[in-house]
Each structure stands twice: as structure tokens, then as C-alpha cells.
């Protein structure tokens, strides 16, 4: 007999507190993201309550302020949102890992604005203790006639709760920055963190002042002595609360997309080649704008420029686990509250939502390219040289993408004409087959290097494709695998010899008699051990005799020329 007993696991705050404080987030700067997100949530919640009629007061100008006071060594995050009563503090703050945000979202599911609440895990607030020796919450609830309260803790499991005087609705979180964290008392450091995480939060966030000049007859002359102007300090808003990806695609013009691109990457000079606006709400939530950059030589430095957001809060710019590798060449923003955060990277890869999101993005990109190709082929062709690496990379690494890309992947010939794979096959079908009837696509990776062979091939009416770039040989083998009757052969004399002239198409231009008379003459003139004389022509305009040099002879001669002589 096995005796069985059930019980409850006890968590002692004494033990768990240091863990939360020190190891919850490996990156200490995250505390600011968490506290500003809470402040934004507090404002968003008030908006929801106002729209349902539960809050009847004036919303006023909802905003978040970050205040730095070097003297008292404090950093304060202030909002004018819902605030908390003493009871609410007890419920939401004194219970670790109970998320008030999650509770709110459940309660107001379906109400406008409820879906944009950021909080989730009920741990963010405590991240303040990573950088502060003491944290105060000074808050006045939205309820009429409530008593303002202050919660204070030095990071031990004890706290104090006192009644205070506070006139304005909302919450101040005051961090008394600890000795090891004085970097967070530097203006530039805080500005940097806000720029990184809070740039697109949905509620205006202010930090410090900035100087602005306005023209006025009472002012001083400007440097050019042209106009009189006065300088004024105005609150410095660090965010754009309505970034382009949150708008409906129909409301945006190309110019809006391009200017948002510059907002994301102020250092980039080129406009992107095209963009894709992601906008899904079922079966997962995903918005965002992906840009296709002009890819420069160095593919490596272009990578990992996609920023991942969750409800407009920046999370990370390493999305390698979320999108297939070839898509990391894209730039832009993905925003999804359905991508689990604060979890390990390896977990991300196996997450069902992440997989679906990744597949969705791949499909969207392929569809967009197909649509561009169909809509304006000339324009697509003009972009092809910049798109090529990306499409080839995609075809090599993702079967589904390859399946779609078959219809728009282009092959450029030596005359600068572009063909789809099928079109190219049609082009070469009349002339370029070997003795087994297999289509032979001639190609070169370098026009300069194969100049004379390309010329010979063209004289004989053949098409030569330019297939170059780092992925060329891999790409050729995938195309060969999916097109059984097609083989790629690098253009050289042997390759040209493999191609048979189709009977009847272009007959010899000289009679038998003429041929017999001329053959010895030619052979004695060109050394018949090294050259081959044939009485055939490959096109109407071609000469009636072809003298070719077999590839092995050419190589041998080359060897001798450079002193090799190993034959
Ligand atoms: P989460 O945001 O995931 O719910 P947090 O630990 O960040 O968890 O915050 C816990 C709860 O404390 C919030 O859900 C909210 O109810 C409350 N709270 C935190 N900051 C504020 C604030 N500035 N104004 C009002 N309530 C707040
Ligand atoms: Mg939170």
C-alpha cells in the first residue's frame, strides 16, 4: 500500500524576494520599461472605465512623466491614471505574481482599449528593487473622495502604508536609487532607455525639457541676424503614441511608410524597396510593418533590424527565434502580445504561436512579392537585382516559400533581359538540348571571365544566364532538383559542344562538295590537333563554318602558357 498525502507548497517571501530582485531580469535597465508600462496601463485602464461609464470624472490630458532628481537621488514615474486605494495596494502590490493587469483584461474583455493593456505576469513592479534601496508608491485613486496613501518598502518583506496628502489623481512611483545603480541618475542614461523601450508607447511620455525657438519681435536676433526669436523650455515628449503600424493600411500612403522607416532608422539614407503591413487578429494577434531594405554588399550587417514589440512596448531586436533566418534580412517592427516574453529562447522556438506567426510572415512576404510581380513587372524587374539574394535565400531555406517564389524568381540573361524559370525554359527549348533531350541552361557567374564563350554561345543563338552571388551554386541545385528536365552548365567550349543542333532547323549553308573542298584547307591553317572544324551554323546570321577549341585543349594550353606543363 502506498500512503498518499496532498499538501500545499509554501513560498516564503523571505526567500523569494532576493530572487525576484536580482534574477528576474538579467538586464537592470528593464525596471524603467516595467514601471513606465504600468503607468501607461493605469492611464489606459482609466480610458476604458470612462468609456464604460464607470468613471464619470474628467480624463484630462492623460500622460506619464519621468522625473529625475539628482539631489535626493530619486527617479519618479508619474501618471494621472486610475490610482490605487489602500485595499487595491494590498491586492495588487502586496501579492507578488498576482497580475492586476491580467485581472483587468479578463474583466473588460471585448471592451475597446482593454486589449492594449501591457502587464501580464504581476512581477514588473518589483523590478524597481533591482536599482532602488527604497521604493514608494504615492497614489490617489480615481474614486471620488478617496484617501491618498503611500506604500513604502526597502525591499525586505515588510512595508508601511500611510495616509498622505495628494491632490492629483494617479500614482507616483518614487525610486531611491541605490549605490550600485547611480548610472540611473544620469539624464542621458534615462533618455537612452526611454528611447529604446518607450518610443512608441500609446500614451504621451515626458522626460525633462527641451528648448524650442519661436519668432517674436520681443526676442533676440538669431545667429543670422534675420529674425528675432525667443527660446522657451517645453516638455520633452519622448514617444510617438501613434506609430504607423497601429494605423489601418488604407489610411497610409507610401510616403507615410517611408517616413516611418526613417523614424525607425534615422541613420539610413535609402528608402526601402517595399513594405508589408501586417495586420492579423485571428488566430493570433499580430501587427507590424516589415520593410525590404536595399541590400548592400555586406549581408551580415544588414541583419537583425526587426524590432519586436508587445502592445507598443519594445521587447527585443533579436528576433532570430521568431522569424526564419532569411527573413532576418528584413527591417521593421512586429508587434504581438501573443509572443510569450520573459521566457527562454529555446522555449520560444517550440511555442505554437511563434511557429504560426513565423509561417504567417513567410507567407505574407511571398504573397507580397508575387503581387508586385503581377501588378508591375517592369518595376519588379528593376528591383530584382536588389531582391535576388533574399529570394534565393528564401527558396533555399523554406519549401513553402520556394513553392511560391517559383512564379516570380527571375533569371537575368547576358542581354539584361529577365525571365521566370518557366519562361527561360521556353526560351532555350528550341535550341538548347543535349543528346538525351535534356534542356541545357548555359550560365556564367562573370561576364568578364567568360566573355569569349558567351559571345560564341550568343553567335550560335544560345541564351546565357547570369547566375552569380554567394548562393548561386546552391540555388542552381535546388532549381535542378525541382525541374527534372533542366540542367545548368557553365558556359565553356565543352558546354557548347554538348548542345546538339536540332535537325532541320538550321541546315548547313555549304554543299557537301564545298565542305570537302574547304575542310583540309581550314584544318591545315588552324592545327587540327588543337581545333575542331565544323560545317554548321547556329543562326541565320552566323558564318557557315565553326572552328572551336575543345575545353581540355584550352586548359592544357593555358597550363603551358603559365609554365605548368603537367600534361
Ligand atoms: P502586471 O503589470 O503584470 O499586472 P506589475 O507587478 O507590474 O504586474 O503590477 C502589479 C499591479 O499593480 C498592476 O497590475 C496594477 O494593478 C498595480 N499597479 C502597478 N503600478 C500601477 C500604477 N502606476 N497605477 C495603478 N496601478 C498600478
Ligand atoms: Mg506591469
From TrEMBL:
One of its GO terms (molecular function) is ATP hydrolysis activity. Pfam families: HATPase_c_3, HSP90. CDD domains: HATPase_Hsp90-like. The keyword Nucleotide-binding applies. InterPro entries: HATPase_C_sf, Heat_shock_protein_90_CS, HSP90_C, Hsp90_fam, Hsp90_N, Ribosomal_Su5_D2-typ_SF. Keywords: ATP-binding, Chaperone, Cytoplasm, Nucleotide-binding, Stress response. ATP binds at residues 34, 38, 79, 84, 99-100, 171, 345. Coiled coil: none annotated. It comes from the Bacteria. Belongs to the heat shock protein 90 family. This is Chaperone protein HtpG. It comes from Fluviicola taffensis (strain DSM 16823 / NCIMB 13979 / RW262).
